[in-house]
Amino acid sequence: MFTKLMKRAMVVCALTASIMVGLTAPAQAANKTIILSDSDGRQLGYMVFYDGSPDKFKVCDTQRDGYSVTGRVMRGNAILGETSDGNDKGCNTMAFRTSGTQMRLWWNGPGNIHTFANI
Description:
Elements: H1 2-23, E1 32-37, E2 43-50, E3 55-61, E4 69-75, E5 78-85, E6 92-96, E7 102-107, E8 114-118
Antiparallel strand pairs: 1-2, 2-3, 3-6, 4-5, 4-7, 7-8
């Protein structure tokens, strides 16, 4: 009886250890997405940062309203890269190495609608 209990305890410990190893794996790349919405909650566009070598940014306009969205990668007030996307099919991308920057997304319609995220 004691032997069966010990075997079961060892199996449980081994399974727990294998699960913990899976949970403590190194962190993967830190991709980030920002979504631009108007005051009514309607999504106007989004921008995605893909952490890689080189880093990639995708800017997508999600409304067929005649206005585009512009995504910028900035360090302080300096614009390091910029791309816009309008009512066409697909999204626009840009790629370069960056660090310690911020991605910002503007709607090119009436009002001052924008959002940002540190990367």
